[in-house]
């Protein structure tokens, strides 16, 4: 026992000594574009904390009018106040959006469309991870309902404004975890079998497939769309798992910061010349490969149609 403890201590000591080199390796790409956003309007979901907050900060710094769309308005106002002070941009606004409730999504969209005549960038950033089995206000399994269906509906409701403001972009945060995902059409809601780890993976695969199908349907409109893996980031996303919280704390020196995690979202929102890559999946600010399931056009189209049925909408 003492020998094992000594070996573990030595190993951890080695990791922490070499942390700067390892951190540099895992930090990933950086958004290099100098594009400025004066006069541009941006909506970011879940931007009251983590990656979304850092994304909002950078877009605000570049002069955009940024809407922080989040469930916790008090946290949103706190984040907005901090960003306004940091960037000297007063145009950082907070609006209520609960992606687990389609009524809230529709109310947000209705209010935004009444308030703004343009929308240039929509970043579907918010998400949940490793939740115990639960359902949204509309009866959807939580990972599917929030991570996929909530953003699916939000994008649909704001798409007209995006088209009117073209060129415009939609960026949806997915994850490398999509490689372990599968669209189980016979049990989308996890009622027959539920594993919260796989439920997250399934929803992240849905994000990639949504982006793929959306790009196909948006050809020629001037609106392009991208899926993003932000990296393994120190954030609140793992709050539902005690084990992951412990591991995140232990290995925090080697995880990406929220600033680093925001870089690929920023790259896909801002970088010039990305239009031919609409529908693709990015990691560390470059296009990367996706799982075979994420390249299945039939699955993408079927998921699109099933999503419309579940939400009671039409989207040709």
What would you say this structure looks like, in words?
- It is a single chain.
- The chain has 316 residues and is α/β, with parallel strands linked by helices.
- It contains 11 helices and 8 strands.
- It has helices at residues 2-17, 19-26, 50-61, 73-87, 102-115, 142-164, 196-217, 242-250, 258-261, 263-270, 297-311, and strands spanning 41-45, 65-70, 92-96, 121-124, 168-173, 223-229, 281-283, 286-287.
- Strands 3-2-1-4-5-6-7-8 form an 8-stranded mixed sheet, with helices on both faces.
- Helix 3 packs parallel to helix 4, helix 5 (102-115) packs parallel to helix 6 (142-164) and helix 7 (196-217) crosses helix 11.
- The longest helix is centred in the middle third of the chain and has 23 residues, at 142-164.
- It is globular.
- It starts with a helix and ends in a 5-residue tail after the last helix.
Largest sheet: 8 strands, mixed
Total of DSSP H or I helical runs spanning 4+ residues = 11
Q: Could you tell me the number of beta strands?
A: 8
Distance between the termini: 63 Å
Short description:
By secondary structure, this protein is α/β, with parallel strands linked by helices. The chain has helices at 2-17, 19-26, 50-61, 73-87, 102-115, 142-164, 196-217, 242-250, 258-261, 263-270, 297-311; strands at residues 41-45, 65-70, 92-96, 121-124, 168-173, 223-229, 281-283, 286-287.
Give the secondary structure arrangement, pairings included.
Blueprint: H1 2-17, H2 19-26, E1 41-45, H3 50-61, E2 65-70, H4 73-87, E3 92-96, H5 102-115, E4 121-124, H6 142-164, E5 168-173, H7 196-217, E6 223-229, H8 242-250, H9 258-261, H10 263-270, E7 281-283, E8 286-287, H11 297-311
Parallel strand pairs: 1-2, 1-4, 2-3, 4-5, 5-6, 6-7
Antiparallel strand pairs: 7-8
Helix pairs in contact: 3-4, 5-6, 6-7, 7-11
């Amino acid at each position: 026992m003492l020998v094992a403890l000594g070996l573990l201590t030595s190993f951890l000591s080695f990791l922490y000594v070499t942390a700067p080199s390892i951190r540099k390796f895992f930090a990933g790409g950086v958004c290099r574009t100098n594009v400025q956003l004066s006069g541009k309007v941006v909506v970011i979901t879940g931007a009251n904390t983590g990656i979304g907050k850092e994304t909002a900060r950078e877009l605000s710094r570049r002069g955009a009018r940024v809407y922080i769309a989040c469930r916790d308005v008090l946290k949103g106002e706190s984040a907005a106040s901090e960003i306004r002070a940091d960037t000297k941009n007063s145009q950082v606004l907070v609006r209520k959006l609960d992606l687990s409730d389609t009524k809230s999504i529709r109310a947000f969209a209705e209010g935004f469309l009444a308030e703004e005549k343009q929308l240039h960038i929509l970043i579907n950033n918010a998400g949940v991870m490793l939740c115990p089995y639960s359902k949204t206000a509309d009866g959807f399994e939580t990972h599917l309902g929030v991570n996929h269906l909530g953003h699916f509906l939000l994008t649909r409701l704001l798409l007209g404004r995006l088209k009117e403001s073209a060129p415009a972009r939609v960026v949806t945060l997915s994850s490398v975890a999509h490689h372990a995902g599968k669209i189980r059409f016979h049990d989308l809601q996890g009622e027959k079998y539920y594993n919260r780890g796989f439920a997250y993976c399934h929803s992240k695969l849905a994000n990639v497939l949504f982006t793929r199908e959306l790009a196909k349907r948006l050809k020629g409109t001037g609106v392009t769309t991208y899926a993003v893996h932000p990296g393994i980031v120190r954030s609140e996303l793992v709050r539902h798992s005690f084990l992951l919280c412990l591991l995140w704390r232990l290995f925090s020196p080697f995880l990406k910061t929220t600033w680093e995690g925001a870089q690929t979202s920023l790259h896909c929102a801002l970088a010039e010349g990305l239009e031919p890559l609409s529908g693709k999946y990015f990691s560390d600010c470059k296009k990367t490969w996706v799982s075979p399931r994420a390249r299945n056009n039939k699955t993408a189209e079927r998921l699109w149609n099933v999503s419309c049925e579940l939400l009671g909408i039409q989207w040709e």
